[in-house]
Amino acid sequence: MLKKMRLLRKLSPITDIALIEESADVTLSAGAAPGSDVAPVNGARQAATPVLKEVTANQFQRNDAYGATPVERVDEEERQRISPLARRLAREHGINLNDIVGTGAGGRVRKEDILAYIAQRQAAAEEAISQAATVETSARPITAMQPIFATPTTASSTTSAGTDEELVTPSRMRLAIAEHMVRSKRTSPHATTIVEVDMTNIAKWLEQNKEEFKRREGYAISYVPFVMKAVCEGIRKYPLINSTWTEDNKIIIKKRINLGIAVATDVGLVVPTVYDADQYTLAGLARQVSSLAQRARTNKLTIQDMQNSTFVVNNPGVFGTIISVPIINQPHAGILSMDAVVKRPVVVEDDAIAIRSMMYLCLSFDHRILDGAGAGGFLQAVRTKVQNYGREIDVY
To answer: For the purposes of burial, counting CB atoms within 10 Å of the CB of 291, is it exposed (0-12), middle (13-18) or buried (19 or more)?
Structure first.
């Protein structure tokens, strides 16, 4: 449990579980985000732990939409040390920002710090209430007419359900993911658009070259880098897809294209970042994806790996899904889901029917920022780039 909680403070959960293909060991460091202060997650855990004041049964008070208003840091220097998303989360949950120790650069308070604090506060509140109930019930006898209200714990949750049921207490990672997903749907008016893409030429190239590529380079190449490359080109043509809606109703367009890649691990979903993805060749993108996936599954991602993504590419297709509708990873403007490549009959030129390798690309986007024309135009740009690859592909 402690291990999972530590990860919670570092990671940025999103919606669908996605898996990047395994590859040979890669020792590449985090791509284009250099810095001598970058340290592995394991080495930064102790310093990154948000501070939670001790809460007793008599001291605990409910802070929510009907409770106390949080007291925020007010001087300008301190205000700059709190991200806008963290400030909004603190306001929504009635959190005093002076109780938080930031884990960002220069002590900046980030959303991960707020989420970790919320989880810790909930655990402390449940423990305080449970202790209060124990003291009260032990001080006087319980009659048959007295109802007993107890907060479920890990021990009691497996015995309080019926014979054909099991009550499970979610992990703190799962609670954080749940909170993030609900908040994303509540924050952004989600809209979805889908296109079908002919992957035949890429599929044939991979079939003929992927084994030799892995033997030569030491890491695998899959459909993912091709889609990432196309996404970068689509963002150049439709930069609003690489933006954020602010609290004061402005749009910030990100000039750098930092693609988050969803990776499933034993402890939950993580989204490491390929910085400046548009600067890489196909082989370079494959190397970055392989390296990040390997480090994610061995718990060796750095804090820098987990920050500053501007758009996410999700790949549930490795599980055989044919159409997925992902939830936006806040505060992004959109997220692209790529599903399984499946051979099926397709009408081609001259109304002929041919067997082609087809895939659906699904874009969920924030309708405050984009309309159907912009979202559809972006997807068509991605589709065109992917389908324009010929039989001979230069990955370098």
So the answer is: buried
Closest CA to 70 of 112, 108, 114, 122: 114
The catalytic site residues sit at: 367, 371
Q: Locate the domains of the chain by residue range.
A: 2-13+37-178, 189-387
Write down the architecture of domain 189-387 according to CATH. Answer: 2-Layer Sandwich (3.30)
Spell out the per-residue pLDDT of the chain, length 396, in tens: 444 444 444 444 444 434 444 443 443 444 444 433 333 434 333 334 344 444 333 333 333 333 333 444 445 455 557 888 888 777 777 788 777 878 877 778 888 888 888 877 766 655 554 554 444 444 444 334 333 333 344 444 444 677 888 898 888 888 888 898 999 999 999 999 999 999 999 999 999 999 999 999 999 999 999 999 999 999 999 999 999 999 999 999 999 999 999 998 887 788 999 999 999 999 999 999 999 999 999 989 999 999 999 999 999 999 999 999 999 999 999 999 999 999 999 999 889 999 999 999 999 999 999 999 999 999 999 999 999 998 889 999
- Within 8 A by CB and 6+ apart from 394, the residues are none
Number of H helices, E strands in the chain: 11, 11
Task: Indicate yes or no: pTM above 0.70.
Answer: no
Cβ pair 330, 271 in contact under 8 A: no
